[in-house]
Design a protein that fits this description.
Layout: E1 6-10, H1 18-27, E2 33-37
Parallel strand pairs: 1-2
Length: 43
C-alpha cells in the first residue's frame, strides 16, 4: 500500500470527486497532506 506525503486532487474528477477522495484518505488514517485544486477550462 502506498503512503504518500502529499496527494494532489482535482475537485472535479470522473467517478469520485476530490473532496470524497480526501474524506476516504482521512478516514483511512493516512497522514498525507491533501491539496485540492479546481481547474477551469475557458474557451
Amino acid at each position: 500500500m502506498l503512503e504518500p506525503d502529499l496527494v494532489i486532487l482535482d475537485i472535479k474528477m470522473p467517478g469520485m470527486n476530490g473532496i470524497d477522495v480526501a474524506k476516504v484518505i482521512s478516514d483511512e488514517g493516512l497522514a498525507a497532506v491533501i491539496l485540492l485544486r479546481l481547474s477551469v477550462n475557458k474557451i
